[in-house]
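Repro:
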Amino acid sequence: MGGRATRVFRNFNVENRASREISKEKPTPAPRHPTARLDAMAGSPDIKEEVLRKDDRFLTLLKDVYVESRDPPVRVKDGGGERLPGKQEEKRLTKLGHLEGLDVKKVSKGKISIVEALTLLNNHKLQPQIWTAEKIAAEYSLELKEVNSLLEFFIPFTVHEFPKETKKAIKSHKLKQLT
């Protein structure tokens, strides 16, 4: 509602106000500083002569100057050359089995890939007596505390299939013919 009211006042007498602004005389610009008028001085012969004159003393001094520039040698960055020895991570090969093409081949120690995580969660779910937290920690080079947290908070999905007898079957009706 407020937008409509302000629009009415804003559009009131627009044509007359616009024509009044257009018919006003343009304001005269402020005078320029005298040094800004180089085009007036460029026409004088004294300045042209001074610009075109060559000074022999300055030319001899200029010939004595010799500048030699050399670029610093370019260092090619090597992939593993700049790493500090203490920060290199130990890598281990993943234990993927038949799912090799789906995941990475090497993982840092203390970490697991997604396929490995799903595999170990599924193994623990199916056989919890064999795949204990201690065995999983030793097998995948993980800390026992992290494995316990993983087994406690992450549970793989289970798929339930309903038997065919309990599904509601759609009974076929005979179509009535219209006459």
